[in-house]
Amino acid sequence: MKKPTRKKASAKRTPPPRPAKHAGAKHPRSQQNKASVTLDANGKLTFNHAMVYVKDVERGLTFYRDLLGFKLIEDFRYENKPVYARLRAPGGDGTIALHQTGPEASVLSEGVRLYFEVRELDDFCRNLQQKGFHITQLPRMMPWGWRHAYLNDPDGHEISLYWAGENRMKKTVMKAAQKAARA
């Protein structure tokens, strides 16, 4: 059995990730838990990445890297085939990881949807269509003030491409949508 190998992307180098601070120092029980918690400079919890389980990492890379524009940070290979890959969004610091499942494992993830924000949503969707990709809902304004398009990745994971702009962090937008729904 061959040992898995790690391959780094040859594109732009990103600075190495900061070491995670572990919450275990104050809570002895936490030391028994193998999971680590990443904290920001002020000690607040931060979001690290979303793990997307896929049947074929190479096919996932073709979608997320080649079609959506994500940048490969690294991948791990077994018998020269990628079984794990970590990618960074083309804008910002958001990352996702693609992890290959076993042949009998399900990749269904009902109740989970990935959201990617893009200012030029309509142009981005037209570009995907020109490359032959099917969009399940073309861009349209939603009642809460965000413009959304919906599609599925090759494993059926739901994805929302959207533009919220200045409304992204406003609670008043959701209150207006709730009021409109009651009317």
Instruction: Tally the structural domains.
Output: 2
The helix content is 10-25%
Mean pLDDT: 80
CATH architecture of the largest domain: Roll
* CATH fold naming of the largest domain: 2,3-Dihydroxybiphenyl 1,2-Dioxygenase, domain 1
Described by strand count, sense and barrel closure, the largest sheet is:
5 strands, mixed
**Count of DSSP E strands?**
9
Estimated structural class: alpha+beta
CATH superfamily of the largest domain, by name, is 2,3-Dihydroxybiphenyl 1,2-Dioxygenase, domain 1
What would CATH call the class of the largest domain? Alpha Beta
Please tally the helical runs, counting DSSP H or I stretches of 4 or more residues: 3
The radius of gyration computed from the alpha-carbon positions, rounded to a whole number of angstroms, is 19 Å
End-to-end CA span: 64 Å
Tell me the strand order in the biggest sheet.
1-3-4-5-2
Give an overview of the whole structure:
The chain is an alpha+beta fold and 183 residues long. The protein folds into 2 domains: 1-16 and 48-102, 2,3-Dihydroxybiphenyl 1,2-Dioxygenase, domain 1 (Roll); 111-169 and 174-178, Signal recognition particle alu RNA binding heterodimer, srp9/1, CATH 3.30.720. It contains 3 helices and 9 strands. The chain has helices at 57-67, 121-130, 171-182; strands at 5-8, 49-54, 71-78, 81-88, 95-100, 113-117, 137-141, 147-152, 158-163. It has a 5-stranded mixed β-sheet with strand order 1-3-4-5-2, covered by helices on one side. A 4-stranded mixed β-sheet has the order 6-9-8-7, covered by helices on one side. Mean pLDDT is 80; it is low at 9-35.
